[in-house]
């Protein structure tokens, strides 16, 4: 009995050493690409790499151009605050923005739909193809396995998201100026309104970063609870459409300046973060149950 107990202890210790060694090797390999990202989100992560397939060579998202454009646009807005006549030089661009903005919206919608469906199907396939147990015996925590699935679905749409972000940077300022000046000119101080426009530019970028995470999290949750595949797709898209409907409808109402700031600058950023966290937590719990 004593020898059997000692053998089991030695086997447990050996297994732990093997797992720790495997985790160390996988972690070291995951550092090769995207060092600024968590290990579970990097393209060199084996779970992400497996899901991406040939798409692992996609270029990472580059926000530097958007930031440079935003600095220039913020400077223009502040100049216009000091010299309101400067707005008349910006307004002719509104027509171009209104014509091209629908194209950017369509591209963004396609990217979000792709992210949501790919995330849902990735989790669905692991559950229904019987490969989930193989992932669960890897040294990665279960939540990181799920996070990697979500990250891979976003990586697949990075090229489209890059174009959407540049489109937002180039087209959103004239529309924001038209919106805020038409609603609150004469009611709000010009400098305050200019600061609100600059904040709206930043909030727009933040939405483009957090909303893909939200739809991917929704997809992962739906993929963990629905069947068959077509139902998974329909439910995923329906939930995403419902979210964007309810988060954007209040913007059409006649709101005070302060309320509009909350509706347009705060809620669209806080809600996706909170809902994504909740969806991922529920999906992780479901995977642990399985």
Strand content: under 5%
Count of alpha/pi helices: 11
Mean pLDDT: 85
From the helix content, strand content and strand pairing, which structural class follows?
Answer: mainly alpha
Shape: elongated
* Tally of individual domains: 2
Question: What is the assembly state of the chains in this entry?
Answer: single chain
Distance between the termini: 34 Å
Order of helices and strands: HHHHHHHHHHH
Catalogue the unreliable spans. Answer: 6-11
Any idea what the radius of gyration is? 23 Å
The level of helicity is over 70%
Give a count of the beta strands, DSSP E runs of length 2 or more.
0
Largest sheet: none
Describe how the helices and strands are arranged.
Elements: H1 2-30, H2 46-52, H3 64-82, H4 87-90, H5 93-128, H6 132-136, H7 142-155, H8 158-184, H9 190-225, H10 229-248, H11 257-289
Helix pairs in contact: 2-7, 3-8, 3-9, 5-7, 5-8, 5-9, 5-10, 7-9, 7-11, 8-9, 9-10, 9-11
């Amino acid at each position: 009995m004593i020898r059997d107990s000692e053998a089991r202890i030695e086997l447990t210790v050996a297994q732990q050493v093997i797992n720790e060694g495997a985790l160390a090797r996988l972690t070291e390999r995951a550092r090769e690409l995207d060092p600024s990202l968590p290990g579970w989100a990097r393209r060199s992560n084996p779970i992400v790499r497996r899901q991406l397939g040939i798409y692992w060579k996609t270029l990472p998202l580059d926000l530097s151009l958007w930031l440079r454009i935003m600095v220039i646009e913020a400077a223009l807005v502040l100049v216009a605050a000091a010299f309101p006549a400067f707005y008349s030089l910006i307004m002719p661009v509104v027509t171009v923005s209104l014509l091209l903005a629908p194209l950017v919206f369509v591209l963004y919608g396609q990217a979000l739909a792709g992210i949501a469906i790919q995330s849902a199907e990735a989790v669905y396939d692991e559950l229904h193809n019987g490969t989930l147990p193989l992932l669960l015996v890897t040294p990665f925590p279960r939540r990181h396995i799920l996070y990697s699935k979500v990250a891979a679905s976003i990586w697949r749409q990075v090229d489209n998201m890059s174009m959407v972000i540049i489109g937002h940077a180039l087209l959103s300022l004239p529309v924001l100026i038209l919106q805020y000046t038409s609603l609150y000119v004469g009611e709000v101080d010009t400098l305050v309104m200019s600061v609100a426009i600059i904040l709206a530019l930043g909030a727009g970028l933040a939405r483009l970063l957090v909303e893909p995470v939200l739809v991917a999290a929704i997809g992962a949750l739906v993929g963990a609870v629905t069947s068959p595949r077509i139902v998974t797709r329909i439910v995923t898209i329906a939930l995403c459409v419902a979210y964007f409907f309810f988060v954007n409808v209040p913007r059409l109402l006649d709101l005070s300046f302060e309320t509009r700031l909350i509706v347009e600058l705060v809620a669209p950023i806080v809600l996706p973060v909170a809902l994504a966290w909740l969806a991922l937590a529920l999906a992780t719990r479901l995977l642990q149950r399985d």
